[in-house]
Amino acid sequence: MSTLAYLKSFFKDKDVASVTPTSKYCVRRVCNPINFDQDINIVEYGAGAGVFSRYLLQHMTPGSKLYLFETNEILFGKLKEIDDSRITLFDNSVEYAKELIPDDQIGKIDYIISGIPFSFLDEDARESVLKQSVDLLKEGGRFLAYQTSGHLEEPLQKAFGNVKTGWEWRNIPPMTIYEAEKRKMESTE
């Protein structure tokens, strides 16, 4: 993906946290827990210019679905260039994810991938996004995130009751990788 598009977005949009696209190493590391052998439903928060989206589409079955959220106008324009019927695009904040994802998909999402900079969200917004994420995921579904620091571990532990962390050094900047699983009795409703 175009580093230029990220640079333009970084300087124009306070919510863009990176000046470069995510590395292929980080993409693979974050997506490692995904079972691509079956039809799956994935939501991506902060899809950027589509680095993860393109990787996912290459590996997903024809019956899978991918819901992409991106609020940056330049990056959203890049996502609209991806021609694939499995994609649904939202140029809305992930704070409205549960309202926007089709009702028949609530509680049936297999994976949520998030690159949004949670450190930019206030505590209430962060808590709301994570609660909605728990509700969107099916039991056994996973929240997979990558962030520039370890700040998300405690909020994920609070929302999901579990979290695994790791690092991917082959990215600029290096990323903390998170994985949290929706387990029984974690719905926020």
From TrEMBL:
Protein's name in the database: Methyltransferase
A molecular function GO annotation: methyltransferase activity
Keywords (A to Z) from UniProt: Methyltransferase, Transferase
SUPFAM superfamilies recorded: S-adenosyl-L-methionine-dependent methyltransferases (SSF53335)
InterPro entries (UniProt xref): SAM-dependent_MTases_sf
Gene Ontology BP annotations: methylation
Source organism per UniProt: Fodinibius salicampi
Transmembrane segments: none
